[in-house]
Amino acid sequence: MIWMLLAAQAAQLDPAAMTPEEKAAQLQSSAPADPKAGLPAYDWWSEGLHGLARDGYATVFPQAIGMAATWDAPLVKRIGDVVATEARAKFNARPVDAERRIYEGLTIWSPNINIFRDPRWGRGQETYGEDPYLTGRLGVAFVTGLQGPDPAHPKVIATPKHFAVHSGPEAGRDGFDVDPSPQDLEATYFPAFRAAITEGKAGSLMCAYNAIHGVPACASAPLLVDRLRRDWGFTGFTVSDCDAVGNVQLFHHYRLDAAGAAAASLRGGTDLNCGTTYAALPAALRRGLVSESEIDTALARTQAARRALGIAYGATSPWSRIAPDQVATPAHQATALEAARKSIVLLQNRGDRLPLKPGVRIAVVGADADDLGVLQGNYHGTAVAPVTPLDGIRRAFGAGNVRYAQGAVLADGAPVLVPETALRADGAAGLRAEYFATHDLAGAPLVTRHERRIDLDFNRAAPVAGLGATWSARWSGELVPPGPGAYRLVVDVPACWKYCKAHDAVRLWIDGRPLATGAVAKGRIEIPLTSDGRALSFKLELDHSSEDEGIRLLWEPPADALRGEAVAAAKDADVVVAVVGLSPDLEGEALSVSVPGFVGGDRTDIALPFAQRRLLDALKATGKPLVIVLTSGSAVALDPQAADAILAAWYPGEAGGTAIAETLAGRNNPSGRLPVTFYASTNDLPAFVDYGMKERTYRYFTGTPLWRFGHGLSYTRFAYAAPVARISVVAGQSTSIRVRVRNVGARAGEDVVQAYLVPPAGAGGGLTTPVLQRQLVGFSRLALAPGKHGEASFTLDPRRLSLVARDGTRAVEPGAYRLFLGGGQPGDAAGVWVDLAITGTRQVLPK
Fold this sequence. Notes:
Layout: H1 2-10, H2 20-26, E1 30-31, E2 42-43, H3 64-69, H4 73-93, E3 107-108, H5 132-147, E4 157-158, E5 177-178, H6 182-189, H7 191-198, E6 204-207, E7 211-212, E8 215-216, H8 221-231, E9 237-240, H9 244-250, H10 258-268, H11 281-286, H12 292-308, H13 330-343, E10 345-349, E11 362-365, H14 372-376, H15 389-397, E12 402-405, E13 416-417, E14 423-425, E15 428-429, E16 431-436, E17 447-451, E18 455-457, E19 471-479, E20 485-492, E21 505-510, E22 513-519, E23 524-531, E24 536-544, E25 550-556, H16 559-571, E26 575-581, E27 594-595, E28 598-599, E29 602-603, H17 610-620, E30 626-631, E31 645-648, H18 656-665, H19 697-700, E32 718-721, E33 726-730, E34 735-743, E35 749-758, H20 761-766, E36 775-784, E37 789-796, E38 803-804, E39 810-812, E40 815-822, E41 831-839, E42 843-844
Parallel strand pairs: 3-4, 5-7, 6-9, 11-12, 11-26, 26-30, 30-31, 33-41
Antiparallel strand pairs: 1-2, 7-8, 10-31, 13-25, 14-15, 14-19, 16-17, 16-19, 18-25, 19-24, 20-23, 20-25, 21-22, 21-24, 27-28, 28-29, 32-34, 34-37, 35-36, 35-40, 38-39, 39-42, 40-41
Helix pairs in contact: 1-12, 2-12, 4-5, 4-13, 5-7, 9-10, 13-18, 15-18, 16-17
């Protein structure tokens, strides 16, 4: 890539003047200052999965799986550009010679382009779904959005991850070995990475925790040298997943000590170690396990990146002119709302239950209806003005027409936020909140305000203006239980993940009794509470003097009491909107959670958890119309008969509540499409640890799903017409196809035109194992007014027309194919068939 070549030529680093220890220090993610080399301290670790993450206030877009549901590559590119702009704005706001701590840099460890092969994987929410082509297109868009239009001066450097074949389970991820077939590698696990490197020109790449064919990915020359650099022409730098180099010894037992692990990783192609194991490189050098020239090569690659970014060796960058105020701007927030609107998928709408009529009385039910974490997903920034679904519905339909009841916990044993309905102060739902600019609540409060619940994210961000690094807060009022019984109350203080020197302290009084005091060392304080149903005085104090990231008040109340509140609300309403699903507390990366249906961040059962199924049964029994809004990072097995209409909203970002409410009201016509298959049952899935693709994803699944990949309804209808019924192309050449789409409904709407290639029966069954059913080869969004038509056109190059054989060879195979062009997969949406004849002789394509 251009910046690599130019920066390498101009870098002022003199490896000969550095000791092995100094070189090794620069090849670790927390690189210290080296005045002799003119290097300021720099931490390479920054995150930007769906907004700049973990560095204070930023625009929070829908989680990556929601971005994928937009099927809108230009939008995803714009989101990448916003992430890069906000990263530069924050970087530029700090002094030029300041130490760049973790999450304060310009090397963004995103996107996650692993294939979401199994819905049980908790980190699947970070991906663009199950399809290699869709993932590749969106990955290229995000990478190019991040890095910007000038190859010589990247805005930031993108880092696609985790290379390769990485998608759970979370338990054991540090040391498991994957044995994929050659076909699955080429057809499923490699294509998105190839696209991100060869088309997106990503400047960096992260290797994965797992091993492939017995070799840890971060020590695998076949992956990082042969495939990445030789076959794909990559010239940037590689970085390990965090502590993956150490895992080469500790979990894979591939080497006996840290020096051996460091040498194996460096020689295998890993330039930069997220972690500290490369501190053993000097010892490896002395033992002859690695050469100084190999260390120098890695050093040259990483330092070329710093110079290209304009952050070392006296280099400058045109992006240094981005002003510090270019964070969470109105334009950026508008893009977040656009993404949230486009991400919502209408799964079903029996009897045209949606959109809802103005003036309708709504019972909003569900713990996910009013939870900040459900908006933000994981790897997120702090939203400036987040709107929960409950907030949005109240604004759209009028607060007087909306009644809220929590209804149930998400899963038995998993506490949820104490809702506004259980808190009271000054005659209103919620608590009185006082914020002090001093430690230990000394002096008068800086700000006093009313807050509906205790649900704060202050990760490197002050909850109110005027607070410094040290402050304190008090919440007071009454706790109003929904009924008598045994309760579990939890004060949750999310701890800073790394480099924590201390923890925040809390003090809790209920009914005048002190129940908790002191530092929250393990992130949570749990208090059992027995209630007779009467209101109890409540006071919670927080001393914030560490890098802990927030505070939440959670509970697990008696199930019958919560459910009874929801049924009462439903009976008093015209329609029930149940916001149900999962949360980042249950699914995510290496979580310490073990409740029925969930373990370690993964799911053991893809069904909606029993506590919420029981709630839906009770709501349905009221006879009131029922609309489900599903919030999750993955497919959830729902009973289609449980509700009249179902929306999939994912983890929709800061504007999610607004987008959901607009969709319910009909001001937003849903146009999202599923980036994953919604299976009917866990029984439909192969073993989680099996990385073979047989019976996985729409390409190989032979069963009947609830909703197919690509599915999504609209409040209008579209009709398709093809100008030709048959096309022909010589193997190795490209061809084009176009299709006409007309909006035949009464509302303006957007359709996502999808092109699927169906191979000849002989090719699908004779060449590939498992048998390829069909594969996505193109998609395009069309916005159409009622009665208007438009055209979608697709250029099908040899790679899109190719198949992968059992031996991993990708080739264009002559034969009689079929193309389906429509609003979803064949049989699931309107569309047309076109016969495609590929003539000539077999053409093998490059890896």
